[in-house]
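Priority: medium. Attachment 1 of 2:
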């Protein structure tokens, strides 16, 4: 079967992309075998010069453009010139390898983030991982069979990626968005179901919000926004949104939203809102056993954190954080952590602990 020169160039590139990388190289003979066995070429051994010429074109293009680098080895060989009958030295190319955009470690990192996402359905995870695997050679092995993750067989909103697209467009256009917001409940047959929130009359609530930024944290996607009926920051789970629509009305400027008056400082915002609760951020003083320092840094980071009053076993710290988030975190680590101020937060935590005691009476 005859293939045009342009087609041959493309097929040569495909062979390198699929069968090689920086660690796995192939020879010209192996390239010919692959072209004949997988791409339908015939009698290429009789036309080896055609392969050589096209490989040289591909190498020149790789070197002179922004295309991915092609690795190869060059050696000298004495070859008889059929036209002159004289022996000449010529370059011989071998050991070809394609440098992919992503290393194996980078691909594994991205695949792991998909595997352990708590809201992407299993089927869509598999499709995304297959696409990522296609970004490297066949020698890349994400070791899917050796990794286990939580299943997502429960009620799931399969419109997550659609929601991301719509919200991205709304943010770009500075438009408001409306949607219904789902929550989990148990039906009359004790089955877990996902259904829209309702008002006191049992009518499904319609949310109108001003979107500013999408973020991923704790294995979930959130929208940083403002509920149009209020003046503070809100956070909504993207996988809980349904019937999402872009409205014609311009979104509320950030300067009119509490905590966003000077714009969105995303690293600071995320450090203060570790559970993505709404409400104000305050300066909190707490004291804990030094064994908890690593866990504390994992949650709150290293910026806007001040340690003081250190002893052999304990240390105190000041951190600015969402008050409700600290309330939950302090309960989670109550065996090792004691909140010192503000006083109303201390009182709330005491009430929570008292209620926990009642629950176990």
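Attachment 2 of 2:
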């Amino acid at each position: 079967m005859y293939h045009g020169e342009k087609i041959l160039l493309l097929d040569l590139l495909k062979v390198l992309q699929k069968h090689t990388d920086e660690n796995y190289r192939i020879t010209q003979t192996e390239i010919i075998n692959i072209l004949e066995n997988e791409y339908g070429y015939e009698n290429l051994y009789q036309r080896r010069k055609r392969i050589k010429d096209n490989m040289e074109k591909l190498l020149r293009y790789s070197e002179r453009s922004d295309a991915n680098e092609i690795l190869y080895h060059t050696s000298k060989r004495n070859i008889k010139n059929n036209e002159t009958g004289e022996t000449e030295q010529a370059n011989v190319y071998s050991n070809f390898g394609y440098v992919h955009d992503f290393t194996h470690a980078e691909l594994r990192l991205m695949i792991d983030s998909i595997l352990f996402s708590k809201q992407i359905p299993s089927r869509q995870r598999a499709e995304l991982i297959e696409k990522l695997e296609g970004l490297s050679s066949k020698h890349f092995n994400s070791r899917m069979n050796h990794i286990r993750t939580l299943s997502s067989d429960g009620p799931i909103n399969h419109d997550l990626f659609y929601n991301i697209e719509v919200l991205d467009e709304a943010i770009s256009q500075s438009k408001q968005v409306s949607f219904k917001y789902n929550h989990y409940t148990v039906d009359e047959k004790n089955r877990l179901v996902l259904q829209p929130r309702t008002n006191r009359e049992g009518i499904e609530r319609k949310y109108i919000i001003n979107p500013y930024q999408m973020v991923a944290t704790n294995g979930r996607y959130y929208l940083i926004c403002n509920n149009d009926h209020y003046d503070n920051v809100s956070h909504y789970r993207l996988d809980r949104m349904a019937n999402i629509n872009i409205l014609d009305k311009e979104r509320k400027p950030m300067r009119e939203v509490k905590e966003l008056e000077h714009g969105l400082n995303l690293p600071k915002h995320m450090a203060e809102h570790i559970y993505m609760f709404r409400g104000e951020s305050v300066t909190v003083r707490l004291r804990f056993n030094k064994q908890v320092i690593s866990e504390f840094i994992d949650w709150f980071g290293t910026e806007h954190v001040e340690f003081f009053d250190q002893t052999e076993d304990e240390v105190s710290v000041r951190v600015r954080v969402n008050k409700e988030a600290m309330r939950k975190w302090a309960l989670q680590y109550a065996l090792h952590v004691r909140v010192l101020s503000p006083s109303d937060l201390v009182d709330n935590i005491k009430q929570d602990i008292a209620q926990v005691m009642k629950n176990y009476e």
